[in-house]
C-alpha cells in the first residue's frame, strides 16, 4: 500500500467525506465536487451507502484531476471522517501521505495510524461560531481546501446553489464556516510537505450522474409519459422527470406497483406518446408479465433497468450486472426485443435517445440497461458532450389520416399488424380517422384480431422477428474501442465497466502490457466479435456478476472459450485493481 | 366527433363466441349505446379489456382497443387517458380480472379518479376456465375448486370502491337493457372515474346468480326508491345493505375533481418536435 501515492497516473487527487447516513454526507460531497468542476477540474464520484435513512456508514468519494477521470482507484488521499468507522472502512485505501480531517472535540477518540497525518479541526465549535453546528461539514470543506491549496472561493457558487433557496443569511454563514475551517488549518498546521496542490483550469464543466443523463435523454427525445414505482437505484430517474416533464406537457405518475407502471406506460404509448418506465431487477421481474404483450401488440416502449445486486432483495444498494440474461430472455414464449446497455454517463444520455427511436421505428420494446454504479456516480463533462442539436427523432411508420387509405383491407379495415417486407407495420394512434383497430396479446391477424390459424400465426411471428433482422441490417450496432487495436490481448466488457477499463490501460501500459479494449453497448442485437476474438491470443470478458452472463453469450456467438473476470462483491471495478486482475488472468491457461 | 353515430357503428364484424344467452351481450350493447349517446365515435374511443370472457369485448366492438394481460386493464386505460385527454376511454373487465388479480389496481384507479369509465361484467364465476369460484361468488357456491363453497365472504366491490374514495359508484343488470345503458351513460358523463358493476349472468356455469334471480331480487334505486346519489350516507347504507341487491347510481360526488384537473394533465402527448426541445441546452446547463 505504501506505493499507492506514487502510482498516480492522472495526477489525481482522491478525497472523501464519510459518516453516518443522515449526516449530510451526500450534499457535502456534492458541494466539493461542484466546486472542483467550477475550477475546471474533472471529477468522478462514487458512494458507499446503506439502504436506510439514518444510521450506518456512508461516504461520498471524489477522484479529481485536470485530465478526464472515469474510474475510482484504490487510494484515498484526503478523508473527512465524521466517525471512526469512516476511517476503519477506508484503511486499505489510505496511505502514508493521507490526511484525515476529524473533530477532536467530538466524543469519539480518533484512532488514526501513525504514518498518516491527523488534522484535528474543531468542526462543531467553528460551525457554531459561524452560525450553527449544522455547518460542521462545510467547516471541514474549508479545511480540505487549505490542505489542498484550493481556493475556498470556488466553494461559494456551490454553496449558493445548495443553500440559495434558504436565504442569503444561510449562504453567508456557510461561506464564513468554510473560511473558518480554512483559517484554522492555516494557523495550526504546516502541511506543505504532503504536497497536495489542486491545479485549476479555465474550463467549466457540468456534473451529473447516469440516472440524470437518462432522464435528460428522455426529455430530449420527446418522452412525455413516465410511470414508475420507487425502487433503488432507479428512483432518481423518476424524480428528475417529475420536476421537469410538465414543462414539456408531459406527466409522471407514481403507480401502485411495477405491474401497473408498465401497463400505464404501455397505454400512453398506444395513445401515441413517447413513453417509458424505469425500475431495477426486482421490478423487472414484475414487469416481465407485460413484456410479451408490449412486443406482441407491437407497442414502442422504453424500459430502463438500473441494475442492483440480486437475486431477490440481494444487496439493494450494491453494484451488480446480474440482469443480462433476464433482459435477453425474460418472459414466456419468444419475445423480440432490443437490449441496449450504455457504457458511460454520456452514453446514458445518447443511448436513451436512441432507445426511443428504436422503439418507435420498430414498434418493439427496448430494454435500456444501466446499473447502480452509473446511477450514483457524478462525473464532469463539457456541456457540448450533450449537444442537443445532435438529437434526432425518428418516429418510424406513424401514419396520419392521409396515409391510412394505403393500409386498409378490401373491407376498409385498418391493418395495424400488416405483414410487410421489413416486418414493420403502419402505426395509427387513437383519433386517426378510419384507422380504429384493436391489438392484443393473443396471436392475431393483420387486423389485430385473435387467430389460431396456422399460416397467420407463422406470418405474424416471422414479421415480428423480421423487424429485429431489419434493425440488425439498418442500424449501427458497433462497439466502442480503446487501447491498442493490434494488441494480442483482447478485453471485452459491457455496460459501466468501460471507464475503469480505459484507465486500467494506463496501468497496464506502464507495466509493458498492450491491450485492446472492446466495450459493447448493444447486447441484442450485438456486434459479431468473431474476427476480433480470432485475431487475439487471449480474450477476457470483464463483468460485474458471478457467472459471466455476457461471456456465455460471447462464447455461444463465437464458439470458442474465453477467460473471465467476474466481480460480485457489490462494489464496482476500480482501475488499478482491474489492471492487476487482467495481468494475473493473462498468465492463466485458456479454459478447455 | 360526428353527431350521426349509431351504436351499431361500435360493432365489429366479428361474431362473439360468448355462450348463447351470456350476459356479456347485453352488457356490451349497453356500453355501445352509451358511447354513441354521449357523442363518441369509434375513432376517438379506446376500449381496454383484460382476460376472461369479458376480455373478448375489444374484438367484438369497433374502436381503438387493447386486449391486455389479466388484471391490468385499468392501468392501461389510465395511461391512454393521461396521454390523450381527448380520447374517450372505456375499460371493461370481469369480476376475476377486476376484483381478484387486479384488485390492487382497482383501489388505486378509484383513488386517482381519472376521467374514464370502468364496466365490470360481474357473473360471480370464472367462466372462461370453466367454472371456478370468483371473488364475488357466494361463500357456499360449490365449484370444481371449491367443492364445499369458498367458505369466505364475497368481495363487495361497491363497498371497496366507496372505501377507496370513489366519486361515482353504480350497478346495473345486463338484461335490463335501457337502465343498463342509461347508467353507463351517466358513468361516461361523470367528471372522473365512473365505476359500474354490471350483473352479467353466466348461463353455463352459474346456476345460482341467474337472470331469474336478478330479475326477482333487484331493487332499482331510482325507480323503486327515491335514492339521492349525492347523499354519501344514503349511498353507504345501500352499498352496505347485505339483504338486498340494487341497480342504479349509488353514489356520485358532485364536487368530483378528475385527475387531469388536479394535476394539470391536459396536453395531447402524442405531438412532439422533430428534434430536442428548443431550450434543451438549459437542461444541460442546470448541471453546472
TrEMBL record, chain B:
Domain (Pyruvate ferredoxin oxidoreductase beta subunit C-terminal) ranges: 202-266
Region called Disordered, residue ranges: 131-154
InterPro entries: 2-oxoacid:Fd_oxidoreductase, OFOB, PFO_beta_C, THDP-binding, TPP_enzyme_TPP-bd
Cofactor requirement: thiamine diphosphate; Mg(2+); [4Fe-4S] cluster
Name of the protein: 2-oxoglutarate ferredoxin oxidoreductase subunit beta
This protein's UniProt keywords: Iron, Iron-sulfur, Magnesium, Metal-binding, Oxidoreductase, Thiamine pyrophosphate
Biased composition (Polar residues): 131-147
The Thiamine pyrophosphate enzyme TPP-binding domain, residue ranges: 51-198
